[in-house]
Amino acid sequence: MLNDMKPPELDLLIGPTACGKSGVALELARRQGGEILSVDSMKLYKRLEIGVAKPSAAERAAVRHRLIDLKEPWESCSVAEWLAAAEEAWADARARGVYTLAEGGTALYIKALREGLFEGPGRDEGLRKGLEEEARAEGLAALYARLKSIDPAAAQKILPGDERRIIRALEVHALTGQPISVQQAQWGKLREDARVRVVGLQMDRTELYRRIDARIDGMLARGWLDECRALLSLERPLSKEAAQALGYRTLFAHLRGELSLDEARQRICFDTHHFARRQLMWYRKFPAVAWIEVAPDEPAQALADRVAAAFANA
């Protein structure tokens, strides 16, 4: 009977940048002949490769990766667009009887995948352009102050420097007459049409920072600067979304002669440490996550065993 049918299950592996998620996901997907669904807002952009730690050609050949290279770097991608693509990829895998492991660290994508997304009004390009011009003329602080006056609940959750989310909140209010926080009130409740089992990786902060710094050095050694030169030579600039990728703006500043390479490296390390802390702050708000402490130098195979057991018990 239809009422006895269980909702489909999806395994989701989360954790801060450089904690080892990708290696574990690759190992688990290989074991089950499955696919990896990327939950990463930057890996979906073409031409951003080294700096966003995309899987190698060999890794992609070994395991199919979904939601990578969906957009050109000058294009935008909303959370709603990504979620629609994620649902389509997962449904396609289910139809073929293929296991899917979702893996990534973009908090808003994780939240959307687990809880769905409120259907707010579509973009109003004229209104949005006016708000962007106002931000340039009067400063983003003026828009943020307006948001605090009309929707203090949303302002509490949006950083004063997050222009994209401030403008979206003001846009929604202007189009609907209601605060975006009221319309998003349905969030916080897990979706009922699917069961998303979540395992999170965490590790000692000092070890995490060491891994981050080593990863950044490795990216620079593999040609990250050349990748940035190629992006700067494109006829069209990066979209606001793609330009948020960690480290790229800093390396662009170095290529313009504004920073030495050592200064750029130090800034990228600092910014990435801060980003990892913010990721963990977000994750702590998520319900029903099975957390696993990653031991220093723990092999991906051994960690994958523990993650698989956690999923089985979730």
Features:
six-stranded parallel β-sheet; 314 residues; alpha/beta; globular; Rossmann fold; 14 helices; Histone, subunit A
Secondary structure blueprint with pairings:
Blueprint: E1 9-14, H1 21-32, E2 35-38, H2 57-62, E3 65-66, H3 79-95, E4 100-103, H4 107-115, H5 125-138, H6 140-150, H7 152-157, H8 163-176, H9 180-183, E5 195-202, H10 205-221, H11 224-232, H12 248-255, H13 261-283, E6 289-293, H14 300-313
Parallel strand pairs: 1-4, 1-5, 2-3, 2-4, 5-6
Helix pairs in contact: 1-14, 3-4, 5-6, 5-8, 6-8, 10-13, 11-12, 12-13
Task: Give a brief description.
The protein is built from 14 helices and six strands.
Question: How would you describe the overall organization of this protein?
Answer:
It is a single chain. Strands 3-2-4-1-5-6 form a six-stranded parallel β-sheet, sandwiched between helices. By secondary structure, the chain is α/β, with parallel strands linked by helices. The two termini are 25 Å apart.
What is the CATH topology classification name of the largest domain? Answer: Rossmann fold
Order of helices and strands: EHEHEHEHHHHHHEHHHHEH
- If you average the pLDDT, what whole number results? 92
> What spatial order of strands do you see in the largest sheet?
3-2-4-1-5-6
Largest sheet: 6 strands, parallel
Distance, first to last CA: 25 Å
Low-confidence stretches: none
Q: Considering the protein shown, what is the CATH homologous superfamily of the largest domain?
A: P-loop containing nucleotide triphosphate hydrolases
DSSP summary: helix tally: 14
Number of domains: 2
Tell me the structural class: alpha/beta
Q: Which band does the percent of strand residues land in?
A: 5-15%
Q: Which CATH architecture of the largest domain would you pick?
A: 3-Layer(aba) Sandwich
